């Protein structure tokens, strides 16, 4: 090829007409305005319909404008990008509106009094009372479930990744998979059948056992993934120094993956904290403070929400309490997630100089 | 300190696949022995049978004898963990422990084995880092993570870690293949110093390196892909590179093969 064809003069094939940077925002604003117009003109009452019209207009408009100005290939690129944005918004809108309505309705009665008092002297239809007994119950039940499920889960995962060979580990993997799919009500019924067999009354620890059944497979799976991420070279480096296998696991493999393992445990705690069905069957709920998880019915946050709603008999006070308890539950789960992220970052293997 | 290795009739398998067959050789104490040969001929596999790391791989199996000063490493009642304390290893890719500082990396072998005196630890770490020619570069940042070093420094850190436990034999599997010429030279010089105290076995694909650092050279080859690798010959390095007794060796060294 001769250099003559590369003369700087003449139209460059590398450069084409480009839409300005702000064009996606302009198109978005335009399609929203248009959608509102169409909605008003057509007498559409549902905001969801407005939103869908805006989304379609945005995607179509982006394609049409980009195709006209930039050409077909760029238009395809832009339409893919706009699809991603629309999908993202579709995913975020329900989440945001859920948090928004929970916060708006929850803050009404959420205060220190609410967090530090029980429902002991308040009828469900009257205002007042609080969720102290439910927070206490949830913390104890979830805490005990974690104490049971986390060590068993982590040790199982260590067995599967570090020692497991052959049929036993295949069988364990299979049963862990099956356990992951157990509906929470079934775990509850299982413990309930034991409880009836021994003729026992509902108590908090029974709920913990059911929650532990639900939590264990999640811990096993997440820990397994984290252990598999530890490079084999590190294990071999340690073994080649004459370090026994169990010490290698304890001092090299676990420290390398501890951040991820803790994150997995935290997330599984967050998951079981909201479980209602087994608690309903096994713990029953209690309007009074019962700090002993091993005897007598206890309250718990998800159960409290359900019971306030179910027993409200149309009372606004009970609804307000249910929302405030929901807000507390969401806040607690978010806190767990944040802590998990913090631990993951803090414990991540350091690469800095 | 340094010990003689005497291998006889050694065959190693991965599951049902026979990777090396019937290898016999003697490695003299206080010397450097280089293993050369085409890729896949079983040099790494053979090296790993010398400190019982081969059986760490799932399905890894060994037949034959490896005598370390008259004691069979594969005899009954031999603890592979103790074997690995006597026969240390440096890997192809530098693999410092990412959660540990430079100091802790070097101290890892002693700490994890639990047999050390606290007061001696700092001395041993300093001595090992000096032995690995790394002390001057890291003495001001011993508490920084080991993974923050350059590749060549990391490899020397791994050598320091291996010699800190005072093994009798040091196995090195292509220790310079990921390094630049200057780091390579540093490690070759180091090998020259270390052979005063240790028996050293090194796998390398670099003929000049084998010629430069080793006293004896072993050439491995395999008849065809899928066949087990075999030891073709082992002799003084000078002889192997000037006048080998097997034609295949000469072909391989001079770049004529197949
Ligand atoms: N983990 C393993 N599982 C199964 N087979 C293996 C494993 N590691 C190596 N092998 C096989 O054993 C044979 C010898 O491999 P080895 O790694 O010892 O070769 P090598 O001489 O070190 O090669 P290179 O010079 O490329 O490092 C090869 O055929 C290889 O496919
Ligand atoms: Mg190799």
Automatic annotation (TrEMBL), chain B:
The keyword Nucleotide-binding applies. One of its GO terms (cellular component) is membrane. GO terms for molecular function: ATP binding; ATP hydrolysis activity; phosphate transmembrane transporter activity. Pfam families: ABC_tran. InterPro entries: AAA+_ATPase, ABC_transporter-like_ATP-bd, ABC_transporter-like_CS, P-loop_NTPase, PstB-like. Residues 5-247 form the ABC transporter domain. SUPFAM superfamilies: P-loop containing nucleoside triphosphate hydrolases. Signal peptide: none annotated. The keyword Chaperone does not apply. Keywords: ATP-binding, Nucleotide-binding, Translocase, Transport. CDD domains: ABC_PstB_phosphate_transporter. This is Phosphate transport system ATP-binding protein.
């Amino acid at each position: 090829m001769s250099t003559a064809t590369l003369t700087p003069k003449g139209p460059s094939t590398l450069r084409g007409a480009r839409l300005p940077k702000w064009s996606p925002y302009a198109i978005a604003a335009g399609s929203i305005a248009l959608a509102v117009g169409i909605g008003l003109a057509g007498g559409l009452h549902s905001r969801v319909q407005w939103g869908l019209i805006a989304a379609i207009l945005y995607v179509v408009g982006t394609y049409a404008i980009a195709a006209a100005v930039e050409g077909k290939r760029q238009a395809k690129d832009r339409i893919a990008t706009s699809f991603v944005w629309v999908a993202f918004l579709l995913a975020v809108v329900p989440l945001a509106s859920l948090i928004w309505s929970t916060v708006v309705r929850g803050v009404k009665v959420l205060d220190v009094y609410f967090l530090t008092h029980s429902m002991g002297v308040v009828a469900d239809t009257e205002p007042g009372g609080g969720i102290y007994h439910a927070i206490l119950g949830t913390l104890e039940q979830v805490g005990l479930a974690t104490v049971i499920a986390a060590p068993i889960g982590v040790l199982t995962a260590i067995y599967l990744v570090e020692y497991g060979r052959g049929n036993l580990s295949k069988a364990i993997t299979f049963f862990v998979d099956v356990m992951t799919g157990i509906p929470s009500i079934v775990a509850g019924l299982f413990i309930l059948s034991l409880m009836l067999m021994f003729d026992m009354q509902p108590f908090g620890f029974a709920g913990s056992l059911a929650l532990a059944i639900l939590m264990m497979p999640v811990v096993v799976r997440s820990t397994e993934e984290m252990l598999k991420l530890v490079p084999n070279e590190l294990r071999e480096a340690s073994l080649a120094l004459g370090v026994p296998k169990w010490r290698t696991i304890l001092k090299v493999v676990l420290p390398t993956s501890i951040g991820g393992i803790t994150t997995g445990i935290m997330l599984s705690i967050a998951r079981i904290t909201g479980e209602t069905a087994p608690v309903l069957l096994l713990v029953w709920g209690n309007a009074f403070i019962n700090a002993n998880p091993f005897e007598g019915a206890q309250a718990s946050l998800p159960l409290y929400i359900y019971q306030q709603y179910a027993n409200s008999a149309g009372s606004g006070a009970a609804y307000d309490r249910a929302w405030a308890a929901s807000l507390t539950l969401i806040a607690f789960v978010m806190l767990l997630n944040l802590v998990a992220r913090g631990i993951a970052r803090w414990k991540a293997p350091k690469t800095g100089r | 300190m340094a010990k003689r290795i005497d291998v006889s009739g050694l065959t190693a398998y991965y599951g049902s696949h026979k990777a090396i067959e019937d290898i016999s050789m003697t490695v003299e104490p206080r010397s450097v022995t280089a293993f050369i040969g085409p890729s896949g001929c079983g040099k790494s596999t053979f090296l790993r049978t010398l400190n019982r790391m081969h059986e760490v791989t799932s399905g890894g199996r060994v037949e034959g004898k490896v005598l370390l000063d008259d004691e069979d490493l594969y005899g009954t009642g031999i603890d592979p963990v103790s074997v690995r304390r006597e026969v240390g290893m440096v890997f192809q890719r530098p693999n410092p422990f990412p959660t540990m500082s430079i100091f802790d990396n070097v101290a890892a072998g002693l700490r994890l084995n639990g047999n050390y005196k606290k007061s001696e630890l700092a001395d041993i770490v300093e001595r090992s880092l000096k032995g690995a020619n790394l002390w001057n570069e890291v003495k001001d940042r011993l508490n920084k993570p080991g993974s923050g070093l350059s590749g060549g420094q990391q490899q020397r850190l791994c050598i320091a870690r291996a010699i800190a436990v005072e093994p009798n034999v040091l196995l090195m599997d292509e220790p310079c293949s990921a390094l630049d010429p200057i780091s390579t030279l540093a490690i070759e010089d180091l090998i020259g110093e270390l052979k005063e105290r240790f028996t050293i076995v090194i796998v390398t694909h670099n003929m000049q390196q084998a010629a430069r650092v080793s006293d004896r050279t072993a050439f491995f080859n395999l008849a065809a892909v899928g066949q087990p690798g075999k030891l073709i010959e082992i002799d003084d390095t000078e002889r192997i590179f000037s006048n080998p007794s097997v034609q295949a060796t000469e072909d391989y060294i001079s770049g004529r093969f197949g």
